[in-house]
Every structure is written in structure tokens, then in C-alpha cells.
Design a protein that fits this description.
Blueprint lengths: L11 E2 L2 E6 L9 E4 L6 E7 L5 H4 L4 E4 L3 H8 L16 E2 L8 E6 L10 E4 L10 E6 L1
Parallel strand pairs: 2-4, 3-9
Antiparallel strand pairs: 1-2, 4-7, 5-6, 5-8, 8-9
């Protein structure tokens, strides 16, 4: 029998969601479903850990799954947010935050309606493998 994949959908209310990230390199959600009625959507990111942004910083980047590797590689070491400036592949991204901090980004869901699949992920070097999830409009 196939192993059950633990799914942790983000709670979405009023065209927004809050995702938590921690010192164990984990988000508390692995999928975000944006209601089709939303004309803008906000992802709030809360770092529940205690480590600094320079050691265990987290952000949220929204992009096509096929663009993740390139965005991650090109942004590695580009401080402070580990996203290359004006990277056209990036649909939206927050700044990198450390323990106890919060940030948010708002974007137009129309940008993730066609094509895809789309993902959200952390572009802090080495984090993408563990910190990613799907995002779609439904």
C-alpha cells in the first residue's frame, strides 16, 4: 500500500493566510489554496523560532515549480533576501526574517491561474528542499 502523505493545508480567510516557519527549517503548511474570488492575496509569514535571520532566516517565494531551482541558485548569497533583484521568474516574495519576526507579501492571484504547477518555498540557502509547498487557485 502507498504511504499516506501528510498534508497540512494552510488556513485561508479573507484572501489571506498566515504561514509559520521555525528553527527546524519547516513551514507549518504544505499547500495554499487561493479562492478564485480573490483579486489579491496576502501571505503572512511568522518565524516562531529564536534564531537570527543570518543563521536560520526564512522567506516565502512564489513561483512556477519549474523555476524554483534557478531562482534558488541565482538568489543564493544575494543578501538580504536571497532573491536576485528583478528576477522575472519570481511572482512574489517576502523579505527574509529571523526568529520572532513577521512579514507579508500581497500579489495578484491571476499570476498563478494559468500554467504551473506553482509552489511557495524558502530561498534561504539550503532550505528549499524541506521548505516548500504547493499553491493554486481554486
Amino acid at each position: 500500500p502507498e504511504a499516506a502523505v501528510a498534508s497540512k493545508p494552510a488556513v485561508v480567510e479573507n484572501c489571506a493566510t498566515t504561514i509559520e516557519a521555525n528553527d527546524q527549517m519547516q513551514y507549518n503548511a504544505d499547500s495554499i489554496t487561493v479562492p478564485a474570488s480573490c483579486t489579491s492575496f496576502t501571505i503572512n509569514l511568522k518565524h516562531t523560532g529564536t534564531m537570527g535571520a543570518n543563521v536560520m532566516g526564512h522567506n516565502v517565494v512564489v513561483a512556477a515549480q519549474s523555476d524554483m531551482e534557478g531562482i534558488d541558485q541565482d538568489g543564493a548569497g544575494v543578501t538580504p533576501d536571497h532573491v536576485k533583484a528583478d528576477d522575472a521568474r519570481v511572482i512574489a516574495h517576502t523579505k527574509v526574517i529571523g526568529g520572532g519576526e513577521s512579514t507579508s507579501v500581497t500579489f495578484d492571484p491571476a499570476k498563478i491561474k494559468a500554467g504551473g504547477p506553482y509552489k511557495f518555498f524558502c530561498s534561504f540557502p539550503g532550505h528549499m528542499t524541506l521548505m516548500q509547498g504547493s499553491i493554486q487557485v481554486q
